[in-house]
Amino acid sequence: MSTTMPTSRQRRLRTWAFWAVPVLLLLTPLATNAYTQFIINGMLISILVTLGFTLVIGNLGQLAFANTAFFGIGAYASAILSAKLGLPWIMTIPLAGALGALGGFLASSAALRGIRSYYLAIITLAFGELMRWAYLHTKPLTGGTDGLPLPRETMFGISLSDDTLKFYIFLAVTVVLVKATLNLLRSRFGRAVMAVRENEVATASLAIPTARVILTTFIWSGFVVGCAGALFARHVGHVFPESFGMLHLIASFAMVLVGGLGSVLGAVLGAVVLTALPEYLRAFPGMEELFFGLIVAAVLVAMPLGLASLLRRLSPIFVERYYREES
Amino acid sequence: MLMQLTLGGFAQGAIYALIALSLTVVYRSTTVVNFGHGDFVMAGAFLSYVLVVLAGIAFLPAAVLAMLAMFVLGVFFSKGLIRPIRGGPHIGLALMCISAGYILRGIARMVWGREVLPMPPVFDIEPIFIGNLVITGDAVFIIGTVFVLLVVFFGLLGLTDLGKMVQAVYQSPRGARLIGLNVERFNDFSWGVGAALGALGGILVAPISLLHPDLGASFLIKGFAAMTLGGFGSLGGAVLGGILLGLAEQYAGAYLDSALIEITAYVVIVLVLFIRPHGLFGRKAVVKV
Prior knowledge:
The complex is a heterodimer. By secondary structure, chain A is an all-alpha fold.
């Protein structure tokens, strides 16, 4: 399957389209009720979680499953900083991102020590579970199994439990981080990330500092997902250890794959498609697991390049620069 | 006290060894690490529960039937879902295993809901007392079963042509194909054996623990820890790693803090991978660039 690159006119159109989407989204609170708004807010969070994940497993091609750990770190950081230290929640977003980035740094230090492939998968899985154990066993800080509620807070005179206000904040954070990631991937650095995935030795031989590329990608992924964690803490208002378990991991996998591995557009598509559906399945025990499991298996066999590949076939506007389809 | 802990450690470790061994069987022939293996273990336990409690079959025939069923499931999983994506990237294979695990877990939860089921005790052996040491029937049965199985398993590998085939496929699938082995079918067979052995782990745990659909997750990590400790891809290492992990858990839980039992496996994984990534007996397979 060959894809043509977009013409310069189409590229301009794409820039317009990129900004038109969030601008149009500004109007959504007019057309939604509280429940739909809540789901849409959840979608924005999922977009960031999926984006951070796809950067590491898709773009960089590393089998690292620490994404859920970054997410939990971000959420707990935000909750602890606002509940225990009394920081305004909005301030905790970058701080949660920074702690997520620290998690990314730790995960990459494993990768840089030569722990790769399945070893990296296993050690990052262990990292995630260790974090969950830590949330459960540091009761004074995290509340243990009872979780940690976020304090009531107002911004511009509106309560932060208001889903419309949260929507605008979430949208702003999401747009900034998605745009920043796109710019990062379009740069010299983005080319290096792709080169590392394709052949690390050959990349190193071109005097590209592969270690720094891996480190930076993990840190950025941790930052994006950590920020998403802070949004999630406010979204649900109460963080519990169970939110950061294996079910979250398989859901993120499904979003990455359904959208298209290593594609920013795919991360957005996957998150949007798969956030709403499970809400309806939650009432039936086991259906969520079955659903995500079947979806991932089906996509792997039938459509390994995800929804983004369908759009690319439709119009070259959707072709991402420096995104190489595996043949 | 020490003797009691050691016995408990061996009984737990025997199960970890079995799970690590079943993971290694699949890994050696297909180079796929089954990230859904915990749920295969869980499925084995649930199948034996269904056969014993609901169908009223005696424990031993039920265990054999459950293992056979899991063997067939493993073969079909390999044929239907692993083969079509064999040529693709490793990430796809890992994800396929995870999703298979989730499908099994989803089915278990759909049928059982959020209940936690106790399996009726099956080994009505009076505990034996030697001084302060209490030897329970469960411990004897688990250690005995695993021991017999290991003797048979390593006997088959060491003394028969099957063992040579296993070695040939592990060393070079391409070479094995050249000398006329049907590697594809061999891989399906390995998946079946791996699934059946993992299921046996679940069957052995079932009578001494409570059954719930999330049972598998911790066994997966423990299997990984045992494999990592023993060395990835080493069959003997997997067994030894499992036993050592079982002992380490018991000692850490008793002498340090009981909350540590849950995370011993994670700590072992992290420490081993950072200090000696190829474990005790593994081949050095670490990428250095």
